[in-house]
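Per-residue structure
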Amino acid sequence: MELYPAVDLLEGGAVRLRQGDFAARTDFGDPLALARRYRAGGARWVHVVDLDAARRGRPVQRDLVAALVSAVAPLHVQVGGGVRSAEDVEALLALGAARVVVGTLAATDPGALRELAATYPGRVALGLDHRGGQVATEGWRSTSGQAASELLAALAEAPLGAVVVTAIDRDGTLEGPDLAGLAAVLAATEVPVVASGGVGSLEDLRQLAALRVGARRLAGVVVGRALAEGAMSVEEALAACASSE
């Protein structure tokens, strides 16, 4: 199970939100310094979200994303937030992102995501953000009314690099991941699944690494607050992610 340390960008700094609430933020300073700390700890990926772009629906911090990609090379960078068009995907890949996460566009126009995945096989991910199994959009401010299982079925044949599943009600809470919800996604898709939301301890990571649905297991996990606050080190998190191998 791959570790994806998270760097969320807001107004030029690194932050973490609680349950997607912009009024409930914790600041972690320089995002480049945070990302370099993750690289020094041995991480192979960094998960970057432009929260300003997610909130406004247009590019906001492309220059900072580009600087971050350069700062952590040769790490792979997975980028999301406010990706609402093919042009957004193309621009982020051109900046050096290894994979681009698409959420709102996927929910509103699954056909567009299928085309993007076919154009850039393995380099486009579905951002499956949900509250209680209902897909959320527009920076988590709206709920589409669409069930997560319906969106997965609509994209079943798309050559996606991953499905990044975020349980919004758990995100930034450190209260543990949504194991049942993740198991349901593993059962519903053959695409690699990356878990996000709620990880607060090494035991949470061990439980995720041990999760199985038949022969299916999680491909990765996004960890934000627990790493940024120092509840665990990158080295410890990597060991926990590999604990079931």
Summary: Residues 104 and 126 are 9 Å apart (CA to CA). The longest helix spans residues 62-72. The chain has one domain: 2-241. The first strand starts at residue 2 and ends at 10.
